[in-house]
Amino acid sequence: MNERNMGKRCSYSDQCHIFNGLVALKQPLFLVKNIYCNNGFRWWSKCNVYQNFSNGNAVTEKMLPDEGLRLVEE
Questions:
Q1: Which residues contact 55 (CB under 8 A, 6 or more apart)?
Q2: Is the dihedral of CA 42, 61, 68, 28 positive or negative?
Q3: With contact defined as beta carbons under 8 Å apart, do 63 and 24 qualify?
Q4: What is the pTM of this model?
Q5: Closest Cα to residue 57, out of 69, 48, 68?
Q6: pLDDT confidence tier of residue 1, bands split at 50, 70 and 90
Q7: What is the predicted pLDDT for the residue at 25?
Q8: Within 10 A of 72 (CB to CB), how many other CB atoms are there?
Q9: Are 74 and 25 in contact (CB under 8 A)?
């Protein structure tokens, strides 16, 4: 399926493990990216990873945008 950019890309996307596909999500990555990464500040601000980057906190490899998403290994 072709990936679509739904809007402005998150300013932390270059260093984000979710955006770069470095974690195995149960949900399709393009959907997660279109909801959180490519959807403007309103949705970036709801992303746990974005919030941690913004606040200068550590971002772990298992940190997900929200509690509703799951890793493949879980």
A1: none
A2: positive
A3: no
A4: 0.85
A5: 48
A6: very low
A7: 97
A8: 9
A9: no
**CA–CA dist 35, 55 (Å, integer):** 21
Residue entry with tokens 């403007």? 40
Residue type, 65: P
SS (H, E, C) 11-74: CCHHHCCCCCCCCCECCCHHHHHHHHHCCCHHHHCCCHHHHHHHHCCCCCCCCCCCCCCCECCC
Q: In whole angstroms, what is the distance from residue 24 CA to residue 70 CA?
A: 9
Residue 36's CB: how many other CB atoms inside 10 A? 25
- Closest by CA to 31, choosing from 65, 56, 60, 73, is 65
CA distance 10 to 36: 8
User: Shortest CA distance to 37 belongs to which of 64, 68, 73?
Assistant: 64
The position carrying tokens 């746990």 is 48
Residue for token pair 């959180």: 36
